Protein backbone atom coordinates (compact mmCIF):
# COMPACT_ATOMS: atom_id res chain seq x y z
CA UNK A 1 0.00 0.00 0.00
CA UNK A 2 1.10 3.54 -0.62
CA UNK A 3 2.73 5.50 2.18
CA UNK A 4 0.12 7.42 4.14
CA UNK A 5 0.25 9.71 7.17
CA UNK A 6 -2.50 11.34 9.20
CA UNK A 7 -2.03 12.98 12.59
CA UNK A 8 -2.21 9.62 14.37
CA UNK A 9 -2.05 6.85 11.74
CA UNK A 10 0.77 5.92 9.42
CA UNK A 11 1.27 3.33 6.70
CA UNK A 12 4.97 2.72 6.32
CA UNK A 13 6.71 -0.30 4.74
CA UNK A 14 3.27 -1.82 4.13
CA UNK A 15 2.54 -1.87 7.87
CA UNK A 16 0.19 0.14 10.08
CA UNK A 17 1.64 2.33 12.85
CA UNK A 18 -0.33 4.33 15.40
CA UNK A 19 0.54 7.37 17.47
CA UNK A 20 0.01 6.32 21.09
CA UNK A 21 -2.74 8.64 22.34
CA UNK A 22 -2.24 7.47 25.93
CA UNK A 23 1.35 8.72 25.98
CA UNK A 24 0.60 12.12 24.46
CA UNK A 25 1.47 14.88 24.94
CA UNK A 26 4.52 13.95 27.02
CA UNK A 27 5.73 11.32 24.56
CA UNK A 28 5.18 10.90 20.85
CA UNK A 29 5.50 7.16 20.41
CA UNK A 30 4.61 5.48 17.13
CA UNK A 31 3.65 1.88 17.89
CA UNK A 32 3.21 -1.08 15.54
CA UNK A 33 -0.36 -2.18 14.81
CA UNK A 34 0.70 -4.96 12.50
CA UNK A 35 -1.92 -7.57 13.32
CA UNK A 36 -5.43 -7.86 14.73
CA UNK A 37 -4.27 -8.68 18.26
CA UNK A 38 -2.05 -5.59 18.38
CA UNK A 39 -4.69 -3.24 16.97
CA UNK A 40 -7.50 -4.54 19.18
CA UNK A 41 -5.21 -4.12 22.19
CA UNK A 42 -4.47 -0.49 21.16
CA UNK A 43 -8.19 0.18 20.71
CA UNK A 44 -9.07 -1.33 24.11
CA UNK A 45 -6.36 0.76 25.76
CA UNK A 46 -7.46 3.92 23.85
CA UNK A 47 -4.02 4.26 22.30
CA UNK A 48 -6.15 4.42 19.16
CA UNK A 49 -9.36 6.28 19.95
CA UNK A 50 -12.07 8.59 18.64
CA UNK A 51 -15.00 7.27 16.64
CA UNK A 52 -13.73 7.93 13.08
CA UNK A 53 -10.16 6.82 13.81
CA UNK A 54 -11.16 3.45 15.21
CA UNK A 55 -13.04 2.62 12.00
CA UNK A 56 -10.23 3.85 9.75
CA UNK A 57 -7.49 1.97 11.60
CA UNK A 58 -9.45 -1.29 11.44
CA UNK A 59 -10.13 -0.83 7.72
CA UNK A 60 -6.50 -0.04 6.89
CA UNK A 61 -5.23 -3.04 8.85
CA UNK A 62 -7.64 -5.35 7.06
CA UNK A 63 -6.44 -4.10 3.67
CA UNK A 64 -2.80 -4.54 4.68
CA UNK A 65 -3.42 -8.09 5.92
CA UNK A 66 -5.02 -8.89 2.56
CA UNK A 67 -1.99 -7.50 0.75
CA UNK A 68 0.24 -9.67 2.95
CA UNK A 69 -1.60 -12.76 1.70
CA UNK A 70 -4.19 -13.50 4.36
CA UNK A 71 -6.93 -15.75 2.94
CA UNK A 72 -10.48 -14.50 2.40
CA UNK A 73 -11.96 -16.65 5.19
CA UNK A 74 -9.32 -15.51 7.69
CA UNK A 75 -9.94 -11.89 6.68
CA UNK A 76 -13.66 -12.38 7.31
CA UNK A 77 -12.84 -13.63 10.82
CA UNK A 78 -10.42 -10.76 11.41
CA UNK A 79 -13.12 -8.31 10.34
CA UNK A 80 -15.52 -9.66 12.97
CA UNK A 81 -12.87 -9.51 15.71
CA UNK A 82 -12.13 -5.87 14.79
CA UNK A 83 -15.86 -5.05 14.69
CA UNK A 84 -16.17 -6.18 18.32
CA UNK A 85 -13.19 -4.12 19.53
CA UNK A 86 -15.41 -1.37 21.00
CA UNK A 87 -19.21 -1.32 21.07
CA UNK A 88 -20.39 2.30 21.07
CA UNK A 89 -18.82 4.15 18.12
CA UNK A 90 -20.80 3.05 15.08
CA UNK A 91 -18.20 4.37 12.63
CA UNK A 92 -16.30 1.13 13.26
CA UNK A 93 -19.28 -0.98 12.20
CA UNK A 94 -20.19 1.34 9.30
CA UNK A 95 -16.63 1.31 7.92
CA UNK A 96 -16.32 -2.46 8.30
CA UNK A 97 -19.65 -3.01 6.54
CA UNK A 98 -18.10 -1.33 3.52
CA UNK A 99 -14.93 -3.41 3.88
CA UNK A 100 -17.10 -6.54 4.01
CA UNK A 101 -18.61 -5.67 0.63
CA UNK A 102 -15.06 -5.22 -0.75
CA UNK A 103 -14.03 -8.56 0.75
CA UNK A 104 -16.74 -10.31 -1.29
CA UNK A 105 -15.20 -8.98 -4.53
CA UNK A 106 -13.35 -11.53 -6.76
CA UNK A 107 -10.25 -9.32 -6.60
CA UNK A 108 -10.70 -8.70 -2.88
CA UNK A 109 -7.09 -7.61 -2.27
CA UNK A 110 -7.29 -4.55 -4.51
CA UNK A 111 -10.93 -3.96 -3.54
CA UNK A 112 -10.01 -3.81 0.17
CA UNK A 113 -7.04 -1.50 -0.44
CA UNK A 114 -9.14 0.75 -2.62
CA UNK A 115 -11.97 0.90 -0.08
CA UNK A 116 -9.72 1.54 2.95
CA UNK A 117 -7.90 4.38 1.19
CA UNK A 118 -11.22 5.77 0.03
CA UNK A 119 -12.51 5.77 3.62
CA UNK A 120 -9.45 7.77 4.70
CA UNK A 121 -9.82 10.30 1.88
CA UNK A 122 -13.55 10.59 2.50
CA UNK A 123 -13.00 11.19 6.21
CA UNK A 124 -10.72 14.15 5.41
CA UNK A 125 -13.40 15.57 3.16
CA UNK A 126 -16.15 14.96 5.72
CA UNK A 127 -14.12 16.84 8.35
CA UNK A 128 -13.62 19.81 5.99
CA UNK A 129 -17.33 19.93 5.21
CA UNK A 130 -18.26 19.77 8.92
CA UNK A 131 -15.75 22.53 9.71
CA UNK A 132 -17.21 24.81 7.04
CA UNK A 133 -20.85 24.12 7.98
CA UNK A 134 -20.21 24.50 11.70
CA UNK A 135 -18.04 27.60 11.63
CA UNK A 136 -20.92 29.52 10.04
CA UNK A 137 -22.72 29.12 13.39
CA UNK A 138 -19.85 30.60 15.42
CA UNK A 139 -20.28 34.27 16.29
CA UNK A 140 -17.29 36.67 16.31
CA UNK A 141 -15.59 36.96 19.71
CA UNK A 142 -16.91 33.57 20.88
CA UNK A 143 -15.85 31.65 23.93
CA UNK A 144 -16.55 28.01 23.13
CA UNK A 145 -16.56 25.02 25.43
CA UNK A 146 -15.60 21.54 24.25
CA UNK A 147 -15.47 18.09 25.81
CA UNK A 148 -13.20 15.11 25.15
CA UNK A 149 -11.08 15.18 21.97
CA UNK A 150 -12.51 15.56 18.49
CA UNK A 151 -9.50 16.84 16.58
CA UNK A 152 -7.05 15.59 14.00
CA UNK A 153 -5.96 12.90 16.45
CA UNK A 154 -9.42 11.32 16.34
CA UNK A 155 -9.93 11.51 12.57
CA UNK A 156 -7.96 11.47 9.31
CA UNK A 157 -8.64 15.17 8.79
CA UNK A 158 -9.02 18.36 10.81
CA UNK A 159 -11.46 16.76 13.24
CA UNK A 160 -15.17 17.24 13.90
CA UNK A 161 -16.09 19.66 16.72
CA UNK A 162 -12.45 20.73 17.00
CA UNK A 163 -12.33 21.16 13.22
CA UNK A 164 -15.25 23.60 13.52
CA UNK A 165 -13.41 25.49 16.25
CA UNK A 166 -10.15 25.56 14.21
CA UNK A 167 -11.96 26.84 11.12
CA UNK A 168 -13.80 29.49 13.13
CA UNK A 169 -10.46 30.50 14.65
CA UNK A 170 -8.96 30.91 11.15
CA UNK A 171 -11.87 33.24 10.47
CA UNK A 172 -10.86 35.25 13.56
CA UNK A 173 -14.03 34.42 15.51
CA UNK A 174 -12.68 32.48 18.50
CA UNK A 175 -11.67 34.43 21.59
CA UNK A 176 -11.13 31.43 23.84
CA UNK A 177 -11.84 27.72 24.15
CA UNK A 178 -12.78 26.23 27.52
CA UNK A 179 -11.40 22.67 27.47
CA UNK A 180 -13.05 20.15 29.80
CA UNK A 181 -10.28 17.89 31.06
CA UNK A 182 -12.72 14.96 30.54
CA UNK A 183 -12.35 12.53 33.40
CA UNK A 184 -11.55 9.74 33.74
CA UNK A 185 -9.09 9.39 30.83
CA UNK A 186 -8.35 13.09 30.33
CA UNK A 187 -8.75 13.29 26.55
CA UNK A 188 -9.39 17.03 26.99
CA UNK A 189 -6.52 17.73 29.36
CA UNK A 190 -3.99 15.69 27.40
CA UNK A 191 -5.12 15.71 23.76
CA UNK A 192 -7.40 18.67 23.07
CA UNK A 193 -5.18 21.04 25.05
CA UNK A 194 -2.19 19.78 23.05
CA UNK A 195 -3.94 20.09 19.69
CA UNK A 196 -5.21 23.60 20.45
CA UNK A 197 -1.70 24.62 21.48
CA UNK A 198 -0.25 23.23 18.24
CA UNK A 199 -2.91 25.16 16.28
CA UNK A 200 -2.22 28.38 18.20
CA UNK A 201 -5.82 28.63 19.40
CA UNK A 202 -6.23 30.35 22.80
CA UNK A 203 -7.68 28.01 25.44
CA UNK A 204 -8.11 27.46 29.16
CA UNK A 205 -8.12 23.98 30.60
CA UNK A 206 -10.80 23.37 33.25
CA UNK A 207 -11.90 20.40 35.31
CA UNK A 208 -15.28 19.06 34.21
CA UNK A 209 -17.02 20.39 37.31
CA UNK A 210 -16.07 24.01 36.44
CA UNK A 211 -18.26 24.23 33.34
CA UNK A 212 -21.40 25.09 35.34
CA UNK A 213 -19.86 28.12 37.02
CA UNK A 214 -18.55 29.40 33.68
CA UNK A 215 -22.01 29.16 32.15
CA UNK A 216 -23.47 30.95 35.17
CA UNK A 217 -20.93 33.74 34.61
CA UNK A 218 -22.11 34.07 30.99
CA UNK A 219 -18.69 33.33 29.48
CA UNK A 220 -19.66 30.31 27.39
CA UNK A 221 -21.24 31.30 24.07
CA UNK A 222 -21.70 27.78 22.70
CA UNK A 223 -20.71 24.19 23.40
CA UNK A 224 -19.29 21.99 20.64
CA UNK A 225 -18.84 18.27 20.99
CA UNK A 226 -18.51 15.12 18.86
CA UNK A 227 -20.44 11.87 18.72
CA UNK A 228 -19.87 8.15 18.80
CA UNK A 229 -23.35 7.31 17.58
CA UNK A 230 -26.40 9.33 16.57
CA UNK A 231 -29.68 7.41 16.80
CA UNK A 232 -32.59 7.81 14.38
CA UNK A 233 -34.44 10.11 16.80
CA UNK A 234 -31.37 12.38 17.15
CA UNK A 235 -30.20 11.14 20.56
CA UNK A 236 -26.39 11.26 20.73
CA UNK A 237 -23.93 8.99 22.51
CA UNK A 238 -20.68 10.75 23.31
CA UNK A 239 -17.98 10.81 25.98
CA UNK A 240 -19.28 10.53 29.54
CA UNK A 241 -20.07 14.02 30.83
CA UNK A 242 -21.64 15.29 27.61
CA UNK A 243 -25.16 14.80 28.99
CA UNK A 244 -24.46 16.84 32.12
CA UNK A 245 -23.15 19.65 29.90
CA UNK A 246 -26.38 19.44 27.86
CA UNK A 247 -28.54 19.87 30.94
CA UNK A 248 -26.41 22.80 32.08
CA UNK A 249 -26.53 24.37 28.62
CA UNK A 250 -30.32 24.14 28.53
CA UNK A 251 -30.62 25.80 31.96
CA UNK A 252 -28.27 28.62 30.99
CA UNK A 253 -29.55 29.06 27.42
CA UNK A 254 -26.22 28.11 25.83
CA UNK A 255 -26.40 26.62 22.28
CA UNK A 256 -25.34 22.96 22.27
CA UNK A 257 -24.01 21.65 18.96
CA UNK A 258 -22.91 18.16 17.98
CA UNK A 259 -20.49 17.86 15.04
CA UNK A 260 -20.10 14.49 13.33
CA UNK A 261 -19.74 12.84 9.93
CA UNK A 262 -22.69 10.90 8.50
CA UNK A 263 -20.66 7.72 9.28
CA UNK A 264 -21.66 8.32 12.93
CA UNK A 265 -25.38 8.04 12.09
CA UNK A 266 -27.15 4.81 12.96
CA UNK A 267 -30.53 4.99 11.25
CA UNK A 268 -31.36 1.46 12.45
CA UNK A 269 -30.95 2.45 16.09
CA UNK A 270 -34.31 3.93 17.15
CA UNK A 271 -33.13 5.97 20.15
CA UNK A 272 -30.43 6.47 22.75
CA UNK A 273 -31.69 3.62 24.94
CA UNK A 274 -30.71 1.19 22.19
CA UNK A 275 -27.10 2.42 21.95
CA UNK A 276 -24.67 -0.03 23.60
CA UNK A 277 -22.60 1.81 26.18
CA UNK A 278 -19.11 0.51 26.89
CA UNK A 279 -18.27 -0.11 30.54
CA UNK A 280 -14.60 0.25 31.38
CA UNK A 281 -12.16 -0.86 34.04
CA UNK A 282 -12.49 0.30 37.63
CA UNK A 283 -8.82 1.30 37.67
CA UNK A 284 -9.62 4.30 35.42
CA UNK A 285 -11.69 5.79 38.26
CA UNK A 286 -9.84 4.58 41.34
CA UNK A 287 -6.71 6.40 40.23
CA UNK A 288 -4.86 7.57 37.17
CA UNK A 289 -2.21 6.07 34.92
CA UNK A 290 -0.15 7.54 32.13
CA UNK A 291 3.31 8.05 30.73
CA UNK A 292 4.20 9.55 34.14
CA UNK A 293 3.37 6.30 35.95
CA UNK A 294 0.28 5.46 37.97
CA UNK A 295 -1.33 6.32 41.25
CA UNK A 296 -4.36 4.97 43.07
CA UNK A 297 -6.27 7.10 45.58
CA UNK A 298 -9.45 5.07 46.13
CA UNK A 299 -9.56 2.27 48.73
CA UNK A 300 -8.57 -1.19 47.52
CA UNK A 301 -11.57 -2.96 45.97
CA UNK A 302 -13.70 0.23 45.84
CA UNK A 303 -16.91 -0.47 43.92
CA UNK A 304 -16.88 1.56 40.71
CA UNK A 305 -19.31 2.58 37.95
CA UNK A 306 -17.41 3.57 34.81
CA UNK A 307 -19.40 3.97 31.59
CA UNK A 308 -17.25 5.42 28.77
CA UNK A 309 -20.17 7.28 27.21
CA UNK A 310 -23.55 8.78 28.01
CA UNK A 311 -26.56 9.66 25.89
CA UNK A 312 -27.80 13.20 25.35
CA UNK A 313 -31.47 13.31 24.40
CA UNK A 314 -32.28 15.04 21.11
CA UNK A 315 -34.45 17.58 22.96
CA UNK A 316 -31.31 19.15 24.48
CA UNK A 317 -29.44 19.58 21.19
CA UNK A 318 -29.52 22.87 19.23
CA UNK A 319 -28.11 21.50 15.97
CA UNK A 320 -26.55 18.39 14.41
CA UNK A 321 -23.68 19.65 12.27
CA UNK A 322 -22.92 16.97 9.69
CA UNK A 323 -20.79 16.96 6.56
CA UNK A 324 -24.03 17.37 4.65
CA UNK A 325 -24.93 20.57 6.52
CA UNK A 326 -26.69 21.68 9.69
CA UNK A 327 -29.71 19.62 10.73
CA UNK A 328 -32.24 21.47 12.91
CA UNK A 329 -34.32 20.09 15.81
CA UNK A 330 -37.42 20.46 13.60
CA UNK A 331 -35.87 18.30 10.87
CA UNK A 332 -34.89 15.68 13.44
CA UNK A 333 -38.46 15.63 14.81
CA UNK A 334 -39.72 15.20 11.24
CA UNK A 335 -37.54 12.06 11.00
CA UNK A 336 -34.60 13.14 8.82
CA UNK A 337 -32.35 10.53 10.51
CA UNK A 338 -34.81 7.68 10.11
CA UNK A 339 -34.44 4.97 7.45
CA UNK A 340 -35.73 6.34 4.16
O1 LIG B 1 -13.30 6.97 24.42
P1 LIG B 1 -12.90 7.87 23.29
O2 LIG B 1 -11.76 8.75 23.60
O3 LIG B 1 -12.72 7.10 22.00
O4 LIG B 1 -14.17 8.80 23.09
C1 LIG B 1 -14.18 9.72 22.04
C2 LIG B 1 -15.36 10.60 22.00
O5 LIG B 1 -16.28 10.47 22.76
C3 LIG B 1 -15.38 11.61 20.89
O6 LIG B 1 -16.10 12.74 21.29
C4 LIG B 1 -16.05 10.99 19.67
O7 LIG B 1 -15.52 9.74 19.37
C5 LIG B 1 -15.92 11.87 18.48
S1 LIG B 1 -14.25 11.93 17.83
C6 LIG B 1 -14.31 12.86 16.42
From TrEMBL:
GO terms for biological process: L-methionine salvage from methylthioadenosine. The keyword Amino-acid biosynthesis applies. Pfam families: IF-2B. GO terms for molecular function: S-methyl-5-thioribose-1-phosphate isomerase activity. The record marks 148 as: Transition state stabilizer. It comes from Pantoea phytobeneficialis. It comes from the Bacteria. It is an enzyme of class 5 (isomerase). Catalyzes the interconversion of methylthioribose-1-phosphate (MTR-1-P) into methylthioribulose-1-phosphate (MTRu-1-P). Also catalyzes the interconversion of 5-deoxyribose 1-phosphate and 5-deoxyribulose 1-phosphate. Part of a bifunctional DHAP-shunt salvage pathway for SAM by-products. The active site is at residue 228. Its EC number is 5.3.1.23. This is Methylthioribose-1-phosphate isomerase. The keyword Isomerase applies. Keywords: Amino-acid biosynthesis, Isomerase, Methionine biosynthesis. Pathway: Amino-acid biosynthesis; L-methionine biosynthesis via salvage pathway; L-methionine from S-methyl-5-thio-alpha-D-ribose 1-phosphate: step 1/6. It catalyses: 5-(methylsulfanyl)-alpha-D-ribose 1-phosphate = 5-(methylsulfanyl)-D-ribulose 1-phosphate; 5-deoxy-alpha-D-ribose 1-phosphate = 5-deoxy-D-ribulose 1-phosphate.
Amino acid sequence: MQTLRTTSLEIRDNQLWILDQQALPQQKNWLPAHDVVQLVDHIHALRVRGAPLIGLSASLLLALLAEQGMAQAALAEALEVLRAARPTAVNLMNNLDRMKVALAHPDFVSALTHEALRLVEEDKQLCDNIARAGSALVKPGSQLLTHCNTGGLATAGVGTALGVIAHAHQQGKVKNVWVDETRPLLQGGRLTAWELGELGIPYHLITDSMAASLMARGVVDAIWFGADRIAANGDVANKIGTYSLAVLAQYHGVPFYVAAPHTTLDRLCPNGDAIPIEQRAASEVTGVAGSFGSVQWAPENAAVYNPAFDVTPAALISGWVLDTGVVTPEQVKEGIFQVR
